[in-house]
Write a structure and sequence with these properties.
Strand order of the largest sheet: 6-7-8-9-17-13-12-11-15
Number of strands: 37
Number of helices: 19
Strand content: 25-35%
Shape: globular
Largest sheet: 9 strands, antiparallel
Distance between the termini: 83 Å
Radius of gyration: 29 Å
Structural class: alpha+beta
């Protein structure tokens, strides 16, 4: 602005107006999120969260500090830049390295939304991620769609030329980065939709815990009239936009190709023109069409949103049409839910609820059965990947019993259907039904937790019936539920040596907390009998539960608390199962039991939470919230959860909401990204009026679920899969140390090539890493961030098509053959794993010839390890 003494009156007025507009802009930016900035620091921030495969997080304080990641820790890059007056700034992702970040001002996590605020170069940017997981509308809730919205305005009173860049990586579509991908574009109404997927498309395959989806298609869509779009190399897209504010004019012609080779991305760009103080908005959608989601006892099920034949274009057109009303509904839902959570447990509890909500949903897949009824399949993330595990459903379901009883039913039906079939021959409830995404049953009983799972099923059935106001749901399976009640009547009061849900603590006989579950399950069964009009059995089981509870108070008594096991004096444990006595109004245990237990917990509290029991400092976040709900008032409840919130705020383990960690170690971590975190909603169920308000909004009212599919399947045959026979052909250092050239200082370019001069490098034995790294052989200490290795190997004679790398890496590893990138692995392995060699790497291998094997490993945290060899992997017949 002109500041000369001779400024005219009109110019001074213009100056005044510009300053006023700038002040208005600043005020808008301060209130852009409608709430104060969040002081709670999530260990990881939910971004795109629809199911166990489409689950992308930011594990950093600032959205631009690091690449975004799948919950398994693998890179799932989402990138966004804002170009202001010809200069590009990063707001999401750490690429391109040459572009500075636009300073992040705040972060707020709501149940359905994550909102980041950025400011710089005279501009305010609000980037929102909205996944409309609205429990009152299953059709919308089941859509695998997240909206990204950019709201931008000037804050300095002048106009700025602004362009926006956004891209979604093809890495979202592969389990291994060597898998080949291809892309296409289509029109969906007024939308441009970019699609990428693998060329193999082996639908509903590859069960496992840490596996990622490698079928279906990731989509990025936006209004055609507002954007330009292209599919191409991540670096080419970024370079073009950073330099010109535009994308390349054509899609990449060199597809299909492996995902890690010039990684293809779906890119869109918006040109906002000159942006002033009025907010200019643009939005895009990230979606995933799995085509089929679950194999249900031999039958492939479509996702729930596609149950009537809808395709990707239908999904995106409906999502776009609903964008504005859903934005309003999500804001209203978020504010109302967190207001109720704050009323029940204070600010900390509201923050916990907000962080847990989308994580819980993203731990499930939702499909429709043959009758079009919803089935919800939780995945047991970060333990073994089991599907429909009853002792995962039990801690998870408070969220659905509270918000949508239909979804609680949808979690139980697969187990009820299977247990009611001829395949299940045991008197107790099953533990799980297979490994996600394949349900095949466990005809041999699987991982036995007979008292645990039987009690879980009955208690949840009663909770659902109380939410419904009737017991109609249990009618098709009533004989089976009765069988489980009789089993608990015989074996539940003093459980024999067996596992409970805390199976990581091992088998335990006379488990007092497990006995509490069994006793309350019998009372819950009596309550179901009452609702079904069976007064005689209602009275009998109510009386039996009270008698057993009285016996329990004597058998478990241990001075000022109750013990871990009836035969173990001077021990203690969280009696989190007691919470259902209060919630369901069973009134089986005397009130002093709850009071005494809660008072004792305060005496054994650790800096970051309440341990699980006297054997350990380990805790479970879900159970801590259940035990805290035994508190006599809100103040005591807040005091119990405060150390856990301190852990979440300060832990250096940046991963989605953990449900296990060590209570005196802020760096510890364990199970994470699991749907069990829905259990933090347990306190909301203690207010009957609140429970009724939310549960009554369930409009689905599902019923008439289909019986078990009649398609032939045999779980024993399913388990007799072909065996992989592995023969070492170029040894690692597991049996005998192999000599490598290595350096821990960044080498010159071309270090991976065969003719590179490595004479100045050090020679040492493999493997390389830190002593004590699990399942690793360490011949040379490596304790820096990076290490580079080279070694000449001889290619074996014979068929080379079966060759793979055998690699142990902590963490990210690049492997080259004669300078050709042949494998790229994120994260770390647990011991040695076989990794496919990319096609271009296999092309470097000739029988009997010498090849240079070169490796770069980057350490991201924890222990160090790297070692590489070659193996031949062939298929042996099943045993």
């Amino acid at each position: 602005m002109n500041r000369n003494i001779g400024t005219t009156r009109s110019n001074r007025m213009a100056d005044f107006l510009a300053i006023a507009l700038a002040i208005i802009g600043i005020a808008r930016s301060l209130h852009a999120a409608d709430e104060p900035a969040q002081t709670f620091r999530p260990p990881a921030v939910p971004l795109v969260t629809s199911d166990p495969y489409l689950s992308v997080w930011s594990e950093a304080d600032h959205l631009y500090d690091n690449t975004t990641r799948h919950w398994t820790g693998r890179n799932h890059p989402l990138v966004s830049l804002v170009r202001i007056d010809g200069k590009s700034y990063r707001i999401m992702g750490d690429e391109p390295a040459g572009a500075p970040p636009l300073p992040q001002m705040s972060l707020k996590v709501w149940p359905t939304r994550t909102i980041y605020e950025f400011e710089g170069a005279g501009v305010h940017v609000r980037l929102s991620f909205m996944t409309p997981v609205l429990p009152s509308d299953l059709d919308v809730m089941s859509r695998p769609v997240t909206y990204l919205t950019w709201d931008i305005h000037s804050i300095d009173g002048t106009q700025h030329a602004v362009q926006i860049y956004d891209s979604t990586s093809s890495l979202l579509t592969v389990n291994k980065v060597m898998q080949e991908v291809s892309g296409s574009r289509e029109t969906a109404g007024a939308l441009t939709n970019l699609k990428i997927g693998t060329t193999s498309q082996q639908t509903v395959s590859n069960p496992g815990d840490g596996t990622r989806i490698d079928w279906g298609y990731v989509c990025t869509a936006a209004m055609t009239k507002e954007c330009t779009a292209a599919i191409g190399s991540d670096k080419a897209m970024l370079e073009s936009f950073a330099q010109t504010g535009k994308l390349p004019g054509e899609d990449d012609a060199h597809l299909p190709r492996p995902a890690f080779v010039d990684t293809p991305v779906e890119a869109i760009a918006f040109d906002l023109g000159q942006v002033g103080t009025d907010v200019v908005s643009r939005h895009a959608m990230i979606a995933y069409d799995e085509v089929y989601s679950i194999k249900y006892f031999g039958i492939r099920l479509k996702p729930y949103w596609a149950r009537n034949g809808e395709n990707t274009a239908d999904l995106l057109k409906a999502a776009e049409q609903d964008y504005k009303p859903l934005t309003e509904k999500c804001e209203q839902f978020d504010q109302e839910l967190l207001a109720d959570a704050k009323k029940m447990g204070g600010d900390d509890y509201a923050n916990i609820i907000a962080l847990a909500y989308r994580q819980c949903w993203a731990g499930n897949g939702i499909c429709a059965d043959a009758n079009g009824q919803p089935l919800l399949f939780p995945k047991e993330n970060t333990s073994n990947g089991d599907i429909s595990t009853v002792d995962v459903i039990f801690p998870m379901d408070p969220i659905w019993v509270f918000l949508n009883p239909t979804l609680a039913k949808a979690t139980l039906v697969p187990d009820l259907v299977y247990a009611n079939s001829a395949h299940w021959k045991f008197p107790n409830a099953p533990h799980d039904l297979g490994t996600y995404p394949i349900l095949e049953g466990r005809d041999d009983g699987g991982e036995g937790m007979p008292v645990e799972e039987s009690g879980n099923m009955i208690i949840l059935c009663d909770a659902i019936a109380q939410a419904d106001g009737n017991a109609d749901f249990v009618t098709p399976w009533w004989p089976k539920i009765t069988q489980w009640a009789k089993y608990l009547e015989q074996y539940g009061l003093d459980p024999e040596q067996q596992l409970c849900t805390d199976d990581f603590m091992g088998h335990l006989a006379h488990n007092s907390n497990l006995s509490v579950k069994a006793i309350l399950a019998l009372a819950a069964y009596g309550d179901l009998c009452k609702m079904r009009g069976d007064a005689e059995n209602a009275a009998r089981y109510a009386e039996l539960a009270k008698t057993d509870a009285l016996h329990w108070t004597q058998a478990a008594a241990d001075g000022d608390h109750y013990n871990l096991a009836f035969n173990k004096p001077n021990t203690w444990s969280q009696k989190y199962n007691l919470v259902w006595d209060q919630i369901l109004g069973l009134n089986v245990f005397p009130p002093e039991v709850r009071q005494k237990e809660f008072a004792y917990y305060k005496t054994v509290m650790q800096p970051y939470g309440l341990p699980l029991d006297s054997r350990t400092k380990l805790t479970k976040s879900d159970w801590t919230l259940w035990s805290a709900t035994l508190a006599p008032n809100q103040e005591e409840f807040e005091g119990m959860i405060s150390p856990m919130v301190k852990y979440l705020n300060t832990t250096t383990s940046r991963m989605p909401f953990v449900d296990s960690y060590v209570t005196n170690d802020p760096a510890s971590s364990g199970f994470h990204a699991r749907p069990v975190i829905g259990g933090v909603f347990i306190r909301m169920l203690t207010d009957r009026d609140l429970w009724k308000k939310w549960a009554s909004r369930d409009t689905a009212k599902a019923a008439n679920w289909a019986d078990m599919p009649s398609a032939p399947f045999t779980t024993e045959l399913n388990r007799r899969r072909p065996r992989m026979q592995t023969t070492e052909v170029v040894p690692t250092s597991r049996k005998e140390a192999q000599q490598w050239k290595y350096t821990q200082q960044r080498p010159a370019d071309g270090w991976q090539n065969a003719r590179f001069d490595d004479s100045a490098w050090t020679t040492g034995p493999g493997g390389f890493g830190s002593k004590g790294t699990p399942r690793s052989v360490i011949g040379t200490t490596w304790d820096t961030d990076d290490i580079w290795l080279r070694r000449e190997i001889t290619v074996p004679d014979g068929d080379l098509s079966h060759l793979q790398f055998s690699i142990n890496h902590h963490d990210d590893a690049e492997v080259y053959l004669n300078g050709v990138l042949s494998a790229l692995e994120d994260g770390s392995t647990t011991g040695y794993a076989n990794v496919e060699i990319a096609k271009q790497g296999l092309g470097q291998l000739k029988s009997g010839q010498k090849v240079t094997l070169a490796v770069h490993c980057h350490h991201g945290g924890g222990s160090h390890a790297i070692d590489v060899g070659l193996v031949s992997v062939t298929i042996a017949p099943p045993r």
